[in-house]
Amino acid sequence: MKEAFPGVKKIEYEGPESKNPLAFKHYNPDQLVEGKTMAEHLRFSVAYWHAFRNGGADQFGGSTRLMPWDDGSESVSNAQNRVRAAFEFFEKLGVGFYCFHDRDVAPEGATLAETNKNLDAVVKVLKEEQQRTDVKLLWGTACLFAHPRYMHGAATSCNADVFAFAAAQVAKAIEVTKELGGEGYVFWGGREGYKSLLNTDMGRELDHLAKFLHMAVDWKKQVGFTGQFYIEPKPKEPTKHQYDSDAAACYAFLQKYNLVEHLKLNIEANHATLAGHNFVHELEFAAANGILGSVDANRGDLLLGWDTDQFPTDLYDCTFSMLTILNMGGFTTGGLNFDAHVARESFEPVDLFHAHIGGMDTFARGLKIASAIRKDGILSDFVAKRYASWDKGIGADIESGKMSFKELSEYMLKKGESTPNESGRIEMLENIINDYI
């Protein structure tokens, strides 16, 4: 097929002084930061569903995007053409990874067998393009929310046959992810929740979801898939309440059902804000509990209140997120997946490059700033000093488990009053961050 993006050459790093909109100003993949290249730190990935299946439609209007490589049909040959166009984009953009849903890359057939056959035909081209470009699959997943059969959920459906269909679909998706060398697999429960508690047995649905995930773990071992499993938290939309509502809810679920050792979290920025948190809160919670695995990099519009999936261009968010990721030792199998789409008004093919370049440059700047903050130690030193009372004396005794309420009561009765507090210096710290940015 002819070039999907004619006239666009490989995007190169030209430095901060460049005025070329099709060049990186800050993302230099070979630049070393704390002993690793930017490419190794950031592990950028393109979301296939947004980049090559999202036409720009919204609740009030149809598609606007020009995608000349796509004839608009749900044929296998058209799906294969999309793959070739996608890998041309990945190669010209210079990313190392991509992610997909099974139904994004291949059309659904009249039966499960036909659907699997369609997927196999497209996977063949995906594998060819991966070998040609050396672009890898960061993670795969199954779309268990779009088809009408999943109106009541998938693993939490009131219809046992739907549960069985979802299991078969996930089994195939895991096999395909393994075949393509995927480094992980994500479970996103878009409809694993409820609209109304009047018709919902929540306890039973949660039990079923846990059974489903344990079956997936067993299947993973059976087929020899060694990638990381992830759950992606989201509080609502399309359901009123989803069981994977935020990082804390997911962690509680994993603990209750003995799944912590098998799954980490894929944190999405826009989902965090929908849950009433900010992006860094969710990252910090997951990192503190050893379950931060990967990141869906985007942002939402706080004035709209739904999953707008905009590209991440907030330098503060990207700096703080990279600070958390560096502090936890960096990614292992995960990365930064751009789960974001161009604006409906940005309809030309080249706009896809502008959007990803902006996100990559912003995270690259965030990485450099976060590394500088870590090197200077201003934040870490302040936090260490703030908690210094726990490093010796009564604080150390409490943390080591030597103290009881009786002994603490005796200690405080003898002392009479606690040591005075010191200021948290929030404004000063915010000013310091501004100095770095």
How does this structure look, described?
The relative contact order is 0.11. Helix content is 46%, strand content 11%. The chain contains 16 helices and 14 strands. With 437 residues, it is of the alpha/beta class. Strand 13, helix 11 and strand 14 form a beta-alpha-beta unit.
Give me the count of strands. 14
Report, as a whole number of angstroms, the end-to-end distance.
45 Å
Estimated share of beta-strand residues: 5-15%
Strand order, sheet with most strands: 7-6-5-14-13-12-10-8
Give the helix/strand class: alpha/beta
Main features:
8-stranded parallel beta sheet, single chain, 46% helix, 437 residues, alpha/beta, two-stranded parallel ribbon
Summarize the structure.
The chain is an alpha/beta fold. It is 46% helix and 11% strand. β13 (292-296), α11 and β14 form a beta-alpha-beta unit.
Set out the fold topology.
Layout: E1 12-13, E2 23-24, E3 32-33, E4 36-37, H1 38-42, E5 44-47, H2 48-52, H3 76-93, E6 97-101, H4 102-105, H5 112-133, E7 136-141, H6 160-179, E8 184-187, E9 193-194, H7 202-223, E10 228-231, E11 241-242, H8 247-256, E12 263-268, H9 269-274, H10 279-288, E13 292-296, H11 315-327, E14 336-338, H12 350-376, H13 378-386, H14 393-399, H15 405-415, H16 426-436
Parallel strand pairs: 1-2, 5-6, 5-14, 6-7, 8-10, 10-12, 12-13, 13-14
Antiparallel strand pairs: 3-4, 9-11
